[in-house]
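Please, structure for the following, as tokens.
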Amino acid sequence: MRARKGGAAFIFIGGIQPRKVQVDDNPRTCPACGLPSARLKRLDHYLSLFFIPLVPVKRGQRFLECTRCGGVFDEAGRVQARSWESAAPRKCPSCGREVAPEHRYCPFCGQKL
């Protein structure tokens, strides 16, 4: 058999990534600091190609985010957890090193978490 010369290699880097979208530009009063610096936003998920968001896939729930104090609240003003931020790292019971919360196995020693 004869090998082909000049073959092209193609690498595809894509996936789904979250992106905060500002819904309304009007400033609202922040429930925590009392300043008019909270904006109404939404966490949408986009299909991305080479880390560039291209096509919206899923619309998320709306929330208020304060640009001054960093507080995140639902539209009624109740404090919300930031689901798009990663939680605190945990420690592997086998080797004791810090492991990201999304790992099911330790990347250092291979122990199941």
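Residues 14-78 form one domain. The mean pLDDT is 81.
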